[in-house]
Specification:
The complex is a heterotrimer of chains A (321), B (120) and C (303).
Chain A: H1 3-7, H2 14-26, H3 39-58, H4 60-64, H5 73-98, H6 104-112, H7 130-147, H8 156-184, H9 188-207, H10 219-224, H11 232-250, E1 260-262, E2 267-269, H12 275-285, H13 289-302, H14 304-320
Helix pairs in contact in A: 3-5, 5-8, 7-8, 7-9, 7-11
Chain B: E1 3-4, E2 12-13, E3 33-39, E4 46-53, H1 57-68, E5 76-81, H2 98-101
Antiparallel strand pairs in B: 1-2, 3-4, 3-5
Chain C: H1 2-14, H2 44-66, H3 75-101, H4 118-124, H5 135-138, H6 144-165, H7 171-199, H8 203-216, H9 228-235, H10 246-259, H11 282-297
Classes of the chains: A mainly alpha (321), B alpha+beta (120), C mainly alpha (303).
Chain lengths: 321, 120, 303
């Protein structure tokens, strides 16, 4: 018997591995990085996690546009901490993707080349400071609806990243809502700014949950794999139901004449979503798409020499050691 | 175009048209991956909290401080190049762990103790 | 907010319940709980003016560093730069609030309404000629190398001042300094670590680092020049005469540059204080335009 036979026991056959994988999922246990997994599961996760990470990083920009001009030092500190969190969230998520064999620099290249996308919501511009509040309340609120179930995702590193993200994300939503509350008790101009921002962000925030279930072909497989836990429409309904009372408490209205409470179902009914706009925005024709990517590209290209320098220094130190 | 909503901040395409396989790494970007471990407070073990990229050990430990302890979550940090970690085996469910799986007698819950026996 | 609170309670409950929040208590009132009595024999107006000098340096540098957010070389550096900027912003808030608490508000109250706290009246409603920062912190960033050189120099200077300020007879300044030295030591080390890598990295990074050093060094001309007010307050045991930090700063910078294989430029001839007296180049008005524009459009607003 050669030693190599001793070192490498014959791998179990694929059917057995698949059965073990299926049993792990069925038992509600986590899949971990070194486990065998079906190729489709791995690829689906890389896509989803990478594009989630891209959304965090690109999502720094719309609010980052107000960092220099934040109208009080307290708001500036809060916003800076929030935008910093988003960088951190992107990093947690890229790490999770890297446990699946992806490479962060390569994923960033794919983002910049337009091969991988980020959430369409970040292609809308932030026109006033009320947008900072509304992004926290509605956009982060919608993100929370999406993300809380992901804390139970079947893939361990993703679930763990999401727990960390969700804990930090609650600060984001609260700071946004608190800013809006403060503005609503301010001047008439400030109240008008808040309502205007709500009018612009409400429909895009509903689109964040993705196309209706009957137009979402990948969802069934993702739910079977425990990557996804609720359908798009289910989550959207939950979000509407929790947002309406919050709007009332704030003293703003949503721009939907069909929005009404249905006592029979216990849910709010809402109007039809303009999916044509959604397709335009996600295909890169949104108001700020080119600008977002250009800035990410500039950060990479203008500073490539910095990364090279640090790599060269590390090599010199190693050689000298 | 197929989409998922559970990409956190909203629907993104997830169909096979979205490439996921990495290209060969470029020289510019070969900052290695570091795994990071944080001791949450005295008396606790260091716990794996995630990973990051850094050009060398010194930068890695500081980047870990900046990323993983910005809400005072830690009193001590370890970092190690991911490539330097020796793992038990490629598959965590393989024979190295199988033998102990059936030694349930190592676990306290294996022993049934009457409920009226205190402090067990 | 009832609904998402439940979402979070459930989440927190499931995962140990130790919520970590970005800010501690007392965030809304920077000086809450600190004895703000002005020490005997100290003119409150002069104390306030001195707080503006230190506070404006921090505010202006925080603003410059914030310009790097979404433009940094790597995500790790985004997080690091934001941490430095947040520390400085925190120092600025404490120092401006201290100035306000002793009645030093300049002309800011001509524009800012009563609903605006002192720290914001001072940050947003003073014109450039009322700012007391040095040119060192206000200069445009330049590239990453120049940004790092400026951070190294500014943090080294400020750390030397704060280390001495811990002994100040003003309890508020002493407390701010005691907290600040830890932050500043980290900022200085972060910048020094980077400068070693840029100076001794590639030919291009070496060239850029040297260019950065050459661009920043002239800004040291008035950094160690005390104003009459600083001299008086130093004699009263409240302030630090910046000239007393000169040798320490020079020795630290000389050592870092040497290790970074960079050429030490000639030290600039000492010039009389300018920024500390409100004399600035056009870059300060430009920086303040970005900082103050929105707040000034809504002088009666609360945020």
């Amino acid at each position: 018997m050669s030693s190599s036979t001793l070192d490498r026991p014959t791998p179990p056959d694929e059917a057995a591995l698949q059965a073990l994988f299926d049993a792990t999922i069925a038992a509600g246990h986590r899949i971990e990085p070194r486990d065998w997994m079906p190729e489709g599961y791995r690829k689906t996760l890389v896509r989803q996690i990478a594009q989630h990470a891209h959304s965090e990083i690109i999502g720094m920009q719309p609010e980052g546009d107000w960092l220099l001009a934040a109208p009080s030092l307290r708001r500036k500190a809060i916003l800076l901490a929030k935008v910093q969190d988003e960088a951190g969230h992107g990093m947690y998520l890229y790490s999770a993707a890297e446990t699946l064999g992806a490479d962060r620099a390569d994923l960033t290249d794919k983002l910049i080349e337009g091969k991988q996308k980020y959430s369409s919501i970040f292609n809308y511009p932030t026109l006033t400071y009320a947008d900072v509040g509304v992004i926290g309340w509605l956009v982060d609120g919608a993100a929370i609806c999406n993300q809380v179930p992901l804390c139970r995702s079947s893939y361990g590193p993703y679930a763990r990243a999401m727990i960390r993200v969700c804990k930090e994300e609650s600060f984001h939503q609260r700071q946004g809502y608190e800013l809006l509350l403060t503005m609503m008790s301010g001047t008439p101009e400030q109240r008008a700014m808040v309502q205007d921002a709500v009018d612009r962000w409400w429909w895009p925030s509903l689109m964040m949950f993705g196309p209706p279930d009957d137009d979402s072909p990948n969802s069934a497989q993702s739910m079977a794999w425990g990557i996804k836990r609720h359908s798009n429409d289910e989550l959207r309904q939950r979000y509407v139901d929790m947002s309406v009372p919050q709007a009332e408490a704030l003293g703003v209205t949503f721009p939907d004449p069909e929005l009404s409470y249905d006592a029979e179902t216990g849910h709010y009914r809402f109007g039809a979503i303009d999916w044509e706009e959604f397709k335009q925005v996600i295909s890169g024709h949104g108001p700020a798409n080119a600008e977002r990517i250009a800035r990410r590209r500039a950060a990479r290209d203008d500073n490539a020499w910095v990364l090279e320098a640090a790599t060269a220094y590390a090599a010199k130190q190693e050689a000298a050691a | 175009m197929s989409m998922t909503s559970e990409g956190g901040h909203g629907a993104v395409p997830t169909g096979p048209e979205v490439p996921v396989e990495p290209k060969a790494a470029t020289a510019r970007r070969d900052w290695p991956l570091y795994e990071c471990f944080v001791r949450g407070k005295r008396g606790l073990n260091h716990v794996h909290v995630g990973s990051l990229h850094a050009p060398d050990d010194e930068m890695a430990v500081h980047a870990a401080r900046d990323l993983f302890t910005r809400r005072n979550e830690g009193v001590s940090i370890w970092v190690v190049k991911a490539a330097d970690i020796t793992a038990s085996s490629p598959d965590e469910k393989d024979p190295m762990f199988a033998p102990s799986g059936d030694k349930v007698y190592r676990h306290p819950t294996f022993y049934e103790i009457p409920e009226n026996v205190p402090h067990m | 907010m009832a609904h998402e609170e439940t979402v979070y309670e459930a989440l927190d409950h499931a995962h140990g319940g130790e919520g970590h929040w970005a800010f501690g208590t007392g965030f809304d009132e920077p000086l809450a709980g600190v004895d703000t009595t002005v020490p005997d024999g100290v003119d409150p107006a002069e104390l306030g003016e001195y707080c503006l000098m230190l506070g404006d340096d921090a505010l202006v540098l925080a603003q410059r560093l914030t310009e790097w957010i979404t433009a940094s070389p790597e995500l790790e550096e985004e997080v690091a730069v934001a941490n430095v900027a947040l520390d400085l912003l925190g120092q600025a808030r404490l120092l401006l609030a201290r100035a306000g608490s002793v009645g030093v508000l300049g002309r800011s109250r001509e524009l800012a309404t009563g609903s605006i706290p002192d720290e914001d009246a001072l940050a947003y409603f003073r014109d450039a000629d009322e700012f007391r920062n040095t040119a060192l912190v206000a200069a445009p960033n330049g590239d990453f190398a120049q940004t790092i050189v400026r951070l190294l120099v500014a943090a080294t200077v400020r750390l030397a001042v704060f280390a001495r300020l811990r002994e100040s007879r003003d309890p508020v300044l002493a407390a701010i300094a005691a907290k600040g030295v830890h932050e500043l030591a980290y900022h200085r080390d972060h910048a020094a670590r980077w400068l070693l890598r840029l100076g001794d990295g590639t030919a291009e990074s070496h060239r850029r680092a040297q260019d950065g050093v050459d661009a920043v060094w002239p800004l040291l001309a008035d950094v160690f020049s005390a104003t009459d007010l600083e001299r008086r307050l130093t004699a009263a045991g409240v302030a630090v005469d910046p000239s007393s930090t000169r040798e320490e700063v020079r020795s630290v910078l000389t050592e870092v540059l040497e290790r970074a294989t960079l050429r030490l430029p000639e030290w600039p001839a000492e010039a009389p204080p300018r920024g500390r007296l409100g004399e600035h180049g056009p870059e300060v008005a430009e920086l303040l335009g970005a900082l103050q524009g929105l707040a000034r459009q809504h002088p009666a607003a609360t945020w």
